[in-house]
Amino acid sequence: MSRATASIVAAALVMIAPLGAAGQSLPRASDGKPDLSGIWQAVNSAAWNILPHSAEAGVPGGLGVVEGNEIPYTPAAAATQRNNYANRAKLDPEAQCYLPGVPRATYMGLPFQIVQTPAQITLLYEYDHTVRNVFMNSPHPKGPIEFWMGDSRGSWNGDTLVVDVVHFNDQTWFDRAGNHHSEALHVIERYTLIDRDHINYEATIEDPKVFTRQWKMSMPLYRRLDRDMRVLDYECVAFNEALQ
Amino acid sequence: MTYQLLRSIVATAAMVSTAAVAAAGQTATWTPSRLPDGQLDIRGHWISDAVGGAHSVEDGRDPDADVIQGRVDEKNPILIVDPADGRIPYQPAAAARRQQLLRDIFTPTRREHVDPHIRALLDGVPRNNYVPGGMQIMQVAGAVVILYESNHSYRVIPLDGRPHPPAQVKLWMGDSRGRWEGNTLVVDVTNFNEETWIDSHGTFHSDALHVVERWTPAGPDRIDYSVTLEDPKVFTRPWKMTWAVNRNRDKSYEIWEDSRHEGERDVEGILSAGRKEKAAGITGIHEHRREGR
Description:
The structure holds two protein chains of two kinds. By secondary structure, chain A is an alpha+beta fold. Chain A has four helices and nine strands. Chain A has a single domain, classed as Beta Barrel (Lipocalin).
């Protein structure tokens, strides 16, 4: 690139930057909250492994989505993960088309739609017609309850939607690499709209039976801008049945 | 008094009392409220008064099962209003396939002999409206969203006039596009696959199925629902069902997870029993008709 071209590019970047910040205000719902409505998708390889990993046949490599690139398993839980990985073709709940759990539903590689109202925010996933109802400003029901997708209760912290999720079972995984949890899992998700077409997604994970400390993953979610976009269906129950 | 007469009197009394309550509930002063985008407000939790349809849209609940479950006095509403005889207008080849399905249901030996609902597959439209479990209607600008309790299925119904997807796209729940015509939400549903049944009596359809639903609020707590089904590969003419959809007045109601496929073991048992019976030379047909038919 010539010096002249470089300075033109630099000038263009300077012009674009203020537009991004000031020219594009966040879309807002009628109650003034950021409007998360729409169809979103994660674009990464966390579905295979949330940790950094090299490519293999049929598996794209990935930089990982876990802060610090490490999951703080207890020694016993680390051994379980190794066994899960070795037997993943058989043990992965996705292979049985079971509900994917949280946060795994977010990055299955398929889109999901957010339907936003002040009292209830509902997430409709293409994978296995999975649904999560996030009830706003209301307490978790008294347990013990074991849901595949947990019980989600939401609140707004400034412009961030915070979803507290408990009442899980111990049957779901975080990815196809056997990363796992117990029924004591507690997930805190944060959805922050950073511009019209991007959400910064964070999930804080704690489970005293499996991890020695809290840990966190994060990734951007991208708005699907495809013409006539809609969430379709991915009915893996029927796909599995066809193989029987 | 015969059992059948008693049953008919009880059923009539139940219908009359329901009608009286319905009339009282629909006050003349009721004006539907509207949302900012102009839609009539039909948000909330609803339950179809059509449960027998999940077993058979023609003949309602199974009377043998009613005896076992102590439900003989419960309402068993007739859903089909057109044709007047309440029978589905199958083409001859389709009628023969349906009879075979009723035999297969009696002694099932393969998964496709078992009701897709039991197999934890999606129910399709309109069946999802009358399988046990209610529904929640959410409304946002330019769309109606229906969340079904049964098998956590859902439909997003855009109201902006966008076209259905290309015909090559087949969907378990079809593709729903809606519009408000006066006080009626009209939903046009196409792009079905041919895997779902309309009830557990093997009432099948092809991928040419075209469903038109009409949701008309008739008061604060009732929606009059009607649905027309046409399928030029299976039926000789369109046919129509109607029923009332009543509000679940429990304001604190929340739909909780109905994980259906996870841990499903019924099909295994049903097929095992069916195969044993078939091997023992037992055959038959699953059949029960409403009185007078």
